[in-house]
User: What shape does this take?
Amino acid sequence: MSSPPSFTIEAATDALHAMRAARPLVQNITNYVAMTISANALLAVGASPAMVHASEEVDDFVAISNALVINIGTLSPTWIEGMQRAAKRAVSLGKPWVLDPVGCGATKFRTDFAVEMSRAGPSIIRGNASEIMSLAGAAGAGGKGVDSTASSDAALEAGKALARASGAVVAITGETDYVTDGTSVVAITGGSPLMPLSTALGCALSATVAAFAAVRPPFEAAVAALAVYGAAGAAAATRVTGPGHLPAELCDALYVVDADMIARYATIRVVEEVNVG
Amino acid sequence: MSSPPSFTIEAATDALHAMRAARPLVQNITNYVAMTISANALLAVGASPAMVHASEEVDDFVAISNALVINIGTLSPTWIEGMQRAAKRAVSLGKPWVLDPVGCGATKFRTDFAVEMSRAGPSIIRGNASEIMSLAGAAGAGGKGVDSTASSDAALEAGKALARASGAVVAITGETDYVTDGTSVVAITGGSPLMPLSTALGCALSATVAAFAAVRPPFEAAVAALAVYGAAGAAAATRVTGPGHLPAELCDALYVVDADMIARYATIRVVEEVNVG
Amino acid sequence: MSSPPSFTIEAATDALHAMRAARPLVQNITNYVAMTISANALLAVGASPAMVHASEEVDDFVAISNALVINIGTLSPTWIEGMQRAAKRAVSLGKPWVLDPVGCGATKFRTDFAVEMSRAGPSIIRGNASEIMSLAGAAGAGGKGVDSTASSDAALEAGKALARASGAVVAITGETDYVTDGTSVVAITGGSPLMPLSTALGCALSATVAAFAAVRPPFEAAVAALAVYGAAGAAAATRVTGPGHLPAELCDALYVVDADMIARYATIRVVEEVNVG
Assistant: This one.
């Protein structure tokens, strides 16, 4: 019998070391705004990013990747085809993939596609409170619908329902982050109020989650990635006076993040009993 | 009878405060190069950016946006469809939209589409001297044709003609910026010679103009946005020795720009009598 | 009889001055991740970038450009058409163009297209060791096939074969850079181990090579550009503690790079006899 997952700073640090040792190739099918910061965050933390989206080559590329992130930020029909095909390929090859349902709830086109992808076997879904609530509601999972002022606390029940309906681990990020598999819940703190003022840092987090999913099961990967990224973000925020230099400082922090930085700037707390054996 | 528009540092500051209080959702259909800095500039100054371009969802998204910017920088046929549809929707819903005719004059494809969009009811057209002269000429508005060495002064007559022909307020940016509705002209100074050496800062300015257009009529919005952005750019330039860190410093300046910074780094001057009642 | 090409720091400096004096318009058909840093590097070093890719306007735009770079990073069918047409137009007008075969070897789609473009008359092909070895092998030029751990030394023979097969000068970048026309070889040092940890700096180098190709023959252009960029990168690396601020520092260094910086941070060495007359 495997030991139960451990949700601690030590476990997150171990996952970081394992990820850096593996230097996973992370395929990003992501939005135009998020590409540069996603690639830079992955490189800085120790993974190897690739931006490959054309349906003509995703089958081949997923096969050589260690993890995949699909982010629907700047969605268009030609990209949808590549996303669908990449997700299918990842599932068939048993590769972990992360769904970032950017802007779910804003338009029917976007919400419908987010629902479709949530049913395509993602390992992890990461979004903010509004996106997770909207996706849970639209997917018929029992969520409460869109609320643009939703906190991650308010979205927790929706996230649990979405996790049960999709089979994915759900990560809801905000002032406090929550990760849930539908029954167990882990809360992570870190980050900075400046982070939402620099574009696509949430998208780059989803890419980082994918890197960790290459070396850990989804629940542990998401918790570790959120703690590592949150710690780096909080450390970076101490070195800036506004959002302008935050992406650069975040990458510098991801480049050096270690046990001390994680312990100093992040917390991990099991909110509800973990019953994964 | 409404009071005449006031083109002063105080009015620009008031517009900034109103914009921040409203936190307008600004939809960007912009070029790939401009996306990240446009989003970051909007977030820093206090607006809420979204990058949404697919024709499948622009009708829905324009409906929830407070302003729209259409920038033709990296133009292609699939994007044209979304731009046409978004502009039409914005006009029908009475939402302000800004046209940035990037590279107008460089190719027939680009010039023709810029002309088409200038006739689709933009609230404001913002470009450099060459773009405005080219667009005015191509639109049959009486401009003087392309001149790659054109200063914004030289383009002023073309800009006035373009404003009369299109019904839009025209903002011509350069060493001195001019805003005109075809009869009145306001001149704004600010910025730095380093700004043209960092890509897409003009595009991010157009996005900022859209944010102000969500809370002020087009003429006043353009003047206020140019003063605020120009002041932030000039302040940012004092903190760098080259163009490399300018985008980050610009965002930090936009994050804190206030009456003092605007008064210190920008000027607003009515050049020709304002006869808007 | 023209004098033989000179591969020295002085010649590189002269090329830099000539390029800045000409301020060449460099058309970039490049990947989404590379666009911003490519534009910023070109602006900083003294060239004028434009990002134009639509097949509807590339014929017109190549005609007004001084050099072209085609980078296959985020490849898709609609972009392929513009790339094919732009390359054909550049060749017919005698304009220099640079091929950056990003990710060649990773998928059949990508490798096939890289081979096709290598046969479309590029002036210069710039890639890392793996890309050059893969392209040489796939093009039947006698390379050794893909090796993801390949050093630029190991790829030198493949690069020479590729140069002979394609007629292009081949630049292989890594810890030591090599430039070859198939018989002669010049080695350049510079740069920093941090550079591969910031995304798309190799792509921005290819754009810089194109700028130099506007004012010098391909072999001399590639050597000069690699020395200038490598020196700026090495100088920039002395000012950072991680990869985060490297793009900004690189641009600041490119903005001021001169004979002293090149001499201090780069070396140029003729490895095999230069027999170009």
Summary: Chain B is about 50% helix and 15% strand. Residues 3 and 277 of chain B are 7 Å apart (CA to CA). The two ends of chain B are 8 Å apart (CA to CA). The interface with chain C takes residues 31-33, 36-37, 73-78, 103, 106-110, 196-200, 240-245, 248 of chain B (CB under 8 Å).
